[in-house]
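hey so u asked for the seq, here:
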Amino acid sequence: MIRNSLVQAAILVALIAAGQASAQPGRGPGQMMHGRMMGSLPSAMTSDQNPITDAKVDLGRMLFYDTRLSAGAGVSCNSCHSLMDYGVDGKAVSSGHKGQQG
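ran it, structure tokens below
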């Protein structure tokens, strides 16, 4: 339960950080798509109850790349959701623990 919460938090923080880093117009394949479908997204998702801090962004980045969260300690979030590829691996189904599909 805690592990899933940490993974979800890491993904959310990493995606927020990635969105802030790539908030320049015309940057990234998803940028144009969400602009047409939903209008412009804010550069940051702020919350008075849970403000974004450097420590949270650093933790999210660390967890996003941490392979210890996977069953065999060999797969990280970045394994399938590479930020260098805008979070898309281009596969119909990603490889997971021990190369399992899905």
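The CA atoms of residues 35 and 41 lie 7 Å apart. Helices lie at 2-21, 29-38, 54-65, 77-80.
lmk if thats what u needed
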